[in-house]
Amino acid sequence: MLKIERSTTDTVTYRLSGRIEPEDVPELRRLLEVEERCCGMVLDLEDVTLVDREGLAFLGRCEKEGIKFANCPAYVREWLDREQVRRPRGKREEAPGRNL
Hints:
Shape: globular
Order of helices and strands: EEHEHEH
Helix content: 25-40%
């Protein structure tokens, strides 16, 4: 189960707690798509206990869109870095447009 808390200061921060699983990705995508990005956006991952492959792919897309991570667990950061190295640059996996 994933818990999502929203807060704002200079940026919009979503604090995620629990597991990021396939059924959570559409809701996260919807929340992030409705936010204005003029002030920046942060995903605080400090209390995330598990991220599956679909969740990781989502986080990778978020990072490419300029969303910052706070308190990213080491295993998530390592996995994201490895996935970036494996994918040839210049190839798109998805249709053009905003693909969070």
